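Moderator note: this is an archived Q&A kept for reference. The question asked for a predicted structure of one protein chain; the sequence and the answer are reproduced below.
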Amino acid sequence: MMNLRRKVVRAWGFGILAFLALAIGAYALVLYGSPNEIREQSYVMAKGSLPDLWYFVLWGHAVSAGVALVIGWLQFVKRLHHQAPNIHRAIGYVYSAMIIIAGLTGIYLAFFANGGWFAQVGFGTLSVLWLYTLFRGLKSIIVERDPTEHSRWMKRNYALTCAAITLRIYIGLAGAFLGLPDTNDTFFVIAWMAWVPNLLIAELMIGERTRMDRRTRVRVR
């Protein structure tokens, strides 16, 4: 009975995650998908005068991160992984390319983040960890041929990708319940809250899966 409840909770949780990933990813692509219209967005206009390079980098970041968010959750669909490994691999290639672009552009954008130097460090750390977890995930499957370790690192990586979801949730909550719609007043906290809890949840999930696998091996023996 307990196992059934866990499966139901996981199924609902995964479904909600997929919905939010598709919604936020589509939102990013619609608002920032056109490099010609990106200067007209309210968030961009509120930033004031910025280098021309910043607008191009923001466009590249929004598109790559949006695509990664939209397709990343598919990599954790077991049926797709087992029954269509070529599709799983192709999605993985696209996802990895998007994360490399999003991570590198994220480092640049972090220097211009609202909320002061503490927020800039938060977003910069997110981008560095984004790239690092991807590197470890690719290394574990390409070099070490360890699918279990690969799965662990990619869970961590997608948890960081989902910072795009939690970021917008926290911005909305800050505006609705705290009366703080200006990100200059909130990003010094949100820049960290958007990804640190996500990573902790991923670690808890990885730890639970590891314990379950150990129990299974003990029973087989």
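Archived answer notes: The chain has a mean pLDDT of 92.
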